[in-house]
Amino acid sequence: MSKVIYLDNAATTQVYPEVVEAMTPFFTEYYGNPSSIYSFAGEANKAVTKARETLADLINAKSEEIYFTGGGSESDNWALKATAEAYGNKGKHVITTKIEHHAILHTCQYLEKKGYEVTYLDVDEYGSVKLDELEKAIRPDTILISVMTANNEIGTIQPIEEIGQIAKKHGVLFHTDAVQAFGHIDIDVEKMNIDMLSASGHKINGPKGIGLMYIRKGVKIRSFIHGGAQERSRRAGTHNVPGIVGFAKAAELAKASLGERIAYETELRDYLIERVLKEIPFSRLNGERQKRLPNNTNFCFKFIEGESLLILLDQKGICGSSGSACTSGSLDPSHVLLAIGLPHEIAHGSLRLTLSEKTTKEEIDFTVDELKSIVDRLRSMSPLYEDFVKKNGGK
Amino acid sequence: MYSEKVMDHFNNPRNVGEIENASGVGTVGNAKCGDIMRMYLDIDENGIIQDVKFKTFGCGAAVATSSMATELVKGKTVKEALLVTNKAVMEALDGLPPVKVHCSLLAEEAIHAALWDYAEKNNIVIEGLEKPVNDIAEKEEDVSETY
Ligand SMILES: Cc1ncc(COP(=O)(O)O)c(C=O)c1O
C-alpha cells in the first residue's frame, strides 16, 4: 500500500500547511498568555481578536458573539445543557431530531435524566426534517430547538432558514450543529435566524480540539466551564492560541475557496454517485440527491456488510467509513440510516465516502473500480446473495 | 485490531462456497445483527466429514471464524466436530477483540446447525447435539422493497 486515497473527510481533514505555518509562531515565539498585561502577550491577544473577527465573518456574526471551545462536542454540550439550565424556569421541553450527532443525542438523554422532556423529530426518507411536524411539536414550555445544519453521515442539508423562521415566530431559541457545514456551505446567522451555532476546526483543514460556539447577543446562556474570566466569563480556560489562530486561518482559506470548492466537489461527488449507481447492481444512495453536502456520498450495497468492505478497501489504500454495527461498537447499525427507514440488514452494508477539494477524478475512478470487485467478491461469499440468486433464478 | 491469523483467513478464506446435495446444511445468525453464516457438510458413510464449505455475511471476524471453523472440522468425525468449540476457533485465530467473540460462537453454532440437519436427514441422534435455536429462517424479512 503506497498511496493513501483519503475519502473520509467527514471524519477529519488534513491540516493545511498554511494553517500549520500560521500556528507555529504561537507555540514558539508568541507563547504569552493573551490575558496577561505585559506587551509580550500582546501579539497573542491581537491574534485571538483577529481570529474571532475572521470566524465571525464566515457566518455573518459579530466577533463578540463568537466563543472559543474545545471542539464541536463541547459546543453542543454547552448549547444544550446551559440553555436548559438558564431557561429551565420558562420550560423543560427541547426539540431535536433523530439524526443528530451523538454529541447532541447523548446530551439530550442526559437532560431527560435531569427531568427535561425531549422530542426527537422523525425525518423523511432523505433525512430532511418535516417543517410542519417541527412546528406542531412546539409547546408553551419549549425552550430550545436544536437541528443540525447538515448531517455527518448522509450529508443532508436541513431547511435551516425555514426552521429559524419557525423558531423566531414562536419565540423559541434555535441552535444548530454546523460542524459539518461550517466552511463547506453558506451560512448566515442573521438571515437564518440562528441563535446558537456549533463549529469545529478539524472539519475544515484546521487543527483538532478547537471549536467555537456562536451565541447571539441577548441569549441568556450560562458558563459551562467555570474558572477564569476568559470568553466574557462564559468559558474559562487559558486560550488555545495556536488552535484559535489555526482555526481562523482554515476559515479564511475556506472562505476564499468556497465557491470554487463547492463547484468542484459537487461535480466529483455527482460523478462518483453516478458511476456507483450505474455500475454496481443493488446499490442505493442514502440521503438527498442534490440537497447534500458537496463532498458527501453514502451508499448501501445489498447482501454485504460494511466492516468487511472497509477492510478490503483499506488494503487498496482507500479510507472510507461505514454505519454498520461492527463499526459503531454496538449491535445496531447507524441511527441515521435507521431513521431514514432502512431495514437493519441494508444499513449494515453502508459505505460513506467523503471527498475534499484535493480529491482527483483518478482517485475516484480507482476507488469505484476497486469497489466493484470488492462488492462482487463479498457477494460471492454472502449467503444472502446466494438465497437471492436462487429465489430469482439468476440475477 | 485483528491478529495476523484473522486477517489471513479474512483475506484468503478457506473453503468458501456451496456443496450440492450436502449431507447437512446449517444457517445461523440473522441479518439484523449483521452476521449470517451458512455451513455445508459432506459426510461419508463412516461419519467422517469429507468436505465442508461456507458462506458468510458479516464483518472481518465473522468471515475469519467461519473459515477457521471449516478447517477445524474437515476430515474429522462427527463426534470430533462436535468438540470444536468457539474457544478452539478463537485460539486457532490467535484471539479476537472482545466485541467480536460472538462471531466465534456463531461459527460453533453453524457447525452444530449443519450437523443437526445431517442427523435429521438421516434419522439419527448425535449424542450431545442440541437443536440450534439461532436459525435465520425464523427471522427472515423481505427487503427487496427498498430497491
Ligand atoms: C455533526 C457533528 N457534530 C459534532 C461533532 C463533534 O465535533 P468534535 O470532534 O470537534 O468534538 C462532529 C464530528 O464528528 C460532527 O460531525
Radius of gyration of chain A: 22 Å
Main β-sheet of chain B, in a few words?
3 strands, antiparallel
Poorly predicted runs of chain B are 135-147
CATH topology of chain B: Sufe protein. Chain: A
The CATH architecture category of chain B equals: Alpha-Beta Complex
Q: What can be said about this structure in brief?
A:
Chain A is an alpha/beta fold. Chain A is 42% helix and 13% strand.
3D architecture notes:
With 395 residues, chain A is α/β, with parallel strands linked by helices. In chain A, 42% of the residues lie in helices and 13% in strands. Chain A has 14 helices and twelve strands. Chain A has helices at residues 17-23, 25-28, 42-58, 72-86, 102-113, 131-137, 160-169, 241-279, 306-315, 325-328, 335-339, 344-347, 361-380, 383-392; strands at residues 5-6, 66-69, 93-97, 117-121, 142-146, 173-177, 196-200, 211-215, 283-285, 296-301, 318-319, 350-354. In chain A, strands 2-8-7-6-5-3-4 form a seven-stranded mixed beta sheet, sandwiched between helices. Chain A has a three-stranded antiparallel beta sheet with strand order 9-10-12. In chain A, helix 7 (160-169) links the parallel strand 5 (142-146) and strand 6 (173-177). Chain A is globular. The mean pLDDT of chain A is 95. Chain B is α+β, with helices and mostly antiparallel strands. Chain B has a single domain (4-124), classed as Sufe protein. Chain: A. Chain B is built from five helices and three strands; from the N terminus they run H-E-E-E-H-H-H-H. A three-stranded antiparallel beta sheet of chain B has the order 1-2-3. In chain B, helix 1 packs across helix 2, helix 2 (60-73) packs across helix 5 (101-121) and helix 4 (86-92) crosses helix 5. Mean pLDDT of chain B is 89; it is low at 135-147. Pyridoxal-5'-phosphate binds next to helix 4 of chain A.
